[in-house]
Batch of 4 targets.
Target 1
Amino acid sequence: MKQLNIVFIFDELDCKCLHEILTIFNELVFNKFSVSIHNSLTLPSLAMKIYKTNFMPENTIYQILGKPYNDISQSYTGGAVDVYIPHNRSESIYSRMSKKLYYYDVNSLYPFAMASTPMPVGRPKAFTGNILRIDPQAYGHFHVEVTAPDNLQHPIIQQRVKTADGIRTVAGLGTWKMWIYSEEMYNAMKHGYKFTVIEGYKFEKGYIFKEFIETMYNYRLEFPKGHPINDIAKLIMNSLYGKFGMNPENSLVEIFDTSDSVQYDLLKDLMDNLGESIQDWFQIDNHIVCIRDNVSRYTYSEDQDFYHGLDVNVAIAAAVTASGRMWMTLLKNSSEFNLYYSDTDSAIIDKQLPSHMVGTALGQFKLEHVINRAVFLAPKVYGFINENGEEIIKVKGITKSTLTNLHVSDLEALLSQDSSKEFTQEKWLKRTIKGTISLSDVAYTLKVTSNKRQAIYIDNIFEGTKPYYYDKI
């Protein structure tokens, strides 16, 4: 392992250029949205400030804490990333003939979901029992018992499960209990799923993001693709929903010098008044390091019955991602084409989509590639050659320099059962406290993985996948 001591030296001209860039950016944001970028350390925090200042309706976003947060956050999962058919050879991997594939991507999937679907607003109302018997269109987040149809090739309801490779988000079959967004539940009913509601939280509906998304999308279109403002507007538009999914029960680290009488008294007051919020503590010489729940930032307003301090609401974040998954079900279990691979906002199929689904508007699909030869080994691990002869390899966790030595033919060789490819790559490891950065060689094994769907081998060749039953994972 090589250890490097890195010293960053900023030239005076670099500092001036950075200052000018930030000044211009601040002027652009302020002139457009009457918001200063000062005190916004990230684009998501800037997105939240812009939304709160210009677009957020009053008294709609309730601050969800405690048990409701813990319950509803279980329904907060991302997109479905899965391999269904590992290659596009006509009969087997040894065939010279290949099916033509079409790689489609959704235009701004999550912003489209935010703008086009209602969000849960107001104070959640807890209930127990099957509310659908009283209100068949009840809206909110529910704890349910689910039964999936046995013949479903592409299950559309997913949950986090413990596998041999750790916690994974799996869309499986069987009967199980979970928390789910009501609209995703109703959509799944159309595909043959059956639900029994056990308990949950009802919400009112509200279109609270439509104006924000439309404003940002139109602002983005004022600049050509690749322009900095186009990219910034896209990031702001895409990152807002994630702020609502933040854990409000964050931690605070405080250091007290016990040799200082004032700090020692502050420590005693903390122990006396907020002792239950302390998660852990340890001593370094005459200093006490205390890690505690940051409860002091929340105040309660009886007249509004709202928590103020952090504008977060996991019910909204979970509704956005669920709405995105619902939209992607348009490409699942279709009799019109075969689905080879899916990602959060993209899919690879063997037939072109009808013209009314394709375009530049929010939520429409755009054709990214026409593929002549492809292989899919695992989620985020695939490669293809498009009709222009470009070879594109995607392997999560691999450096760009390593990817240059990988080819589609290398991935195809790994379709043979129990085959793998091992190599090492350099990885930077930083130790902030020591102020050092280490450069080490890390081993990486590339192979077929089947921790989300069960691999199907024919004559020792990876030829397909099928969904797991949850009780057999």
Target 2
Amino acid sequence: MQDYTLTAEEYKAKKETERKEILSQLEDGVKAVFSSDKYTEFLRAYSKFHNYSVGNTIMILSQKPDAERVASFTTWKRMDRHIKKGEEGIQIIVPSPYTFEAKVEGKDEPEEMTGMGFRTGYVFDISQTEGKPLPSLITVLTENSPEIKQVIEKMVTTSDVPIYFDKPIKESSNGYYHLTENFIAVKPNLSDTQTFKTLIHEMAHSKLHGKDTEHLSAFEREVQAESVAYVVCHKYGVDTSDYSFGYIAGWSENKDVKELKSSLDTIGKCADQIIEKIGKALGIEERELPQKQAQGMER
């Protein structure tokens, strides 16, 4: 039953207030991650990874384009992970200091000098290793429900972008949007809640991040997409805090979460578009959603 107790203008104002409250909760939740023990553990682990030069980064990606996080054999061993059998190392250039003796003008005895040479070294991507999981800021969503499953089914059949559950996906990822071929891939066998959130995240990418937004950094794109997912899920009574707060914190360049603040309008508009799309797929008007649909999905 539709809620006509508010005028269109009053409803629009109410909706805007609710959106601001949700986005404020999101920002506060992300900021809280930075002061958590989980974040301290995350930093302690990831500080062991080396930042590679531009030249080495190019070398790494030319050999393994899907590389995410690379480290030497020794570093992986210190982190209780070992290289999988049969994996080949990724070549990089490693500085190699050396010493030599040289005659110095005005001195009888030669002096020891230092120089810098270079040699070939090898690193391995995390996908080439196995063992103890790295600390993560996110907690995978595990809830299942017939209501969420129903929404997922409608999203898949009415999506403007093809959605596949049988595409190859990296172990560390739950899904992706393929810009060139224009499709969304989602990892199979996730929980209903995780699938729902991942679908919305990738739909946000498909709507917001085309070729005309290549000026946006990866940080900005991921923060926008996950924020949209949080807002849409919240609308349906699905709490993704355990996942979204840590995910956004992990992609934010600093504790001011500037990527989030600068994108609030973009996030809100995209979330509204997806909510409207889902509502139409379910045959539910926007003004019915808070009363009719969210209550049925809340857990």
Target 3
Amino acid sequence: MANTIDERGDAAVFKDLVEKTISSFTDDTLEMVGPYAFYGCSSLSEVSLPVVTSIGSYAFMDCSTLTTVSLPAATLVGSRAFAYCDSLTTISFPLTTVIYSETFHSCSSLTSVNISAVVSIYNDAFFGCYSLPAISLPVVKSIGDNAFYRCSSLKSINLPEASWIGASAFSFCKSLSQVSFPKVENIGSGAFYGCENLKLVSLPRIKTIKPYAFGACYILSQIYILASSVCSLSGSVFNNTPFTSTSRLGYFGSIYVPESLVNAYKTATNWSVYSARITAYTGG
């Protein structure tokens, strides 16, 4: 049987000891941490579990002084496992493949993330991680609803393999200035709503953009829609952006599409209102 800590039996006594007296916890034999195991341990500041493969839901939730977590062997981290750990600054889970719902919800001090093997990020996973400046997700395929909602320090996103971005996934990420998603095909409602410093968007394979996806992006002036067929656009996608405030090209907003599709875009449903902005992409 795997060496396990959870919320039952003697583990409750162990939890009480940790909560009162231990600030750093390292164990090189422990293989699993069950749900709620360290929930609310107010003295715990550092965790290193080199052979743990599974962390249960709520396992470290509300550990208010926890700053650093290293789980180099973990492949499963449950929902809300570190939610409301508002002192957490560093996480390293290089083998974890899924980040479940609300795993890091409101980790407002988080600045360093190593989750390079993740392929799916569920809803609200990094909701309210206000201090996170950048994140690289080289193999992620999908980003859930509200996944990075109000990550207001987020300046850089690397998503070379992502095809799906959920509703409000990056809403109010006020520090984002440009995004390039080479394989994204679907962008959900309000995905970048309120990204007030977003200037440039590149979407070479986009197929569908839902309502308000770029609403309140006050200085968005360049968007590249370069798929081989006309992208489906819902109404109100560009509300409160330069695209809706004037009909002039250039600084006031240009929509670049393949030269062969310019006329099709100018007459397409919900695109025709932006016909004066639509121009041929002549780059490489």
Target 4
Amino acid sequence: MCLPALLAILAGCVYSSDDGPSGPGPGEQVAATLETPPVDSSGDAADDPAIWVHPVDPALSLVIATDKQLGLYVYDVDGNLLQTLADGRMNNVDLRDGFMLGGTSRTLVAASNRSDDTIDFYLLDPAMRRLTAAGLSVPSGFTDPYGLCMYAAPGGAHFVFVNETDSGRFRQWRIEDGAGGIAATMVREFDVGSQAEGCVADDELGHLYVAEENVALWRYSADPAGGTARVEIDRVRGTNGLAADLEGVALWRGDGGSGFVVVSNQGANNYAVYRRGLANGFVGRFAIVENAALGIDGVTQTDGLELTRSSVGPRFPDGLLVVQDGSNQGTVGRQNFKFVSWRLVAESLGIWEDG
């Protein structure tokens, strides 16, 4: 059932009346609680977010996001812009806590930079809530690096996956503390078959999910010795309503391997949800619609997205979903990011008690 009427108005809880989660339509409907200011660049610019959860005070958590014509933005969890780094055409971004640098555990941020075909690294300062460059960039070896995601293996090793526009090629790099910055060693290369961008690594289970845009959502091993073996999770133009392009992929990490995989079903302006783990069963779809009470438009053509189960302050005590909005109606060609309560999504799909 939907939340009481007052909460529905404030938080944006909207449910479809004629389409169940496995029907042919868009699925369930929720609305965003807040949105960021439009990005600085016009046109197709905003792309991919990452969420950092403050270890002590959830309200001090951050969202780091890309402008693929300019660089990176750092937002607080109220959507306010805290920092802009005009460092190049950053396409995708990810982060991991627990990276050992100079004997100290740090939060490391990685981004694919299409201006100079590199992987750029930053350190997050939790006290200042700002990013600083972590030494020199690492050449990607690609003519146009595109998607990116990070993986922290159970033994403590850290990796970054980067793919190339159009070709479908992925490279996996081991990243370590190096003299004057980050040292990166390529440990694996594989080809998914055609253009891919969105990916996410499941650190606990050792899985890598890849969205091959016009074909399928795949699960690979995230281990550098994983080779090319893969499992098809779902297929474009199959029975569950996937429509090209498939874009960003995110994880809701529950206890004991439970949880969910969420993929941007960009061609249908909605999002598909699957079980985490080996079965990856299809759960349903949802769309993000207008929150008229708060003056927040609905979301279409999402590229990147990110998700956390953790509380990130009083607005999002039950987890946060951040999505790029490809249209951002009401602005003059300037996209932004929308913040959605995960509880609203989970309740709409009937999976709130399943985490």
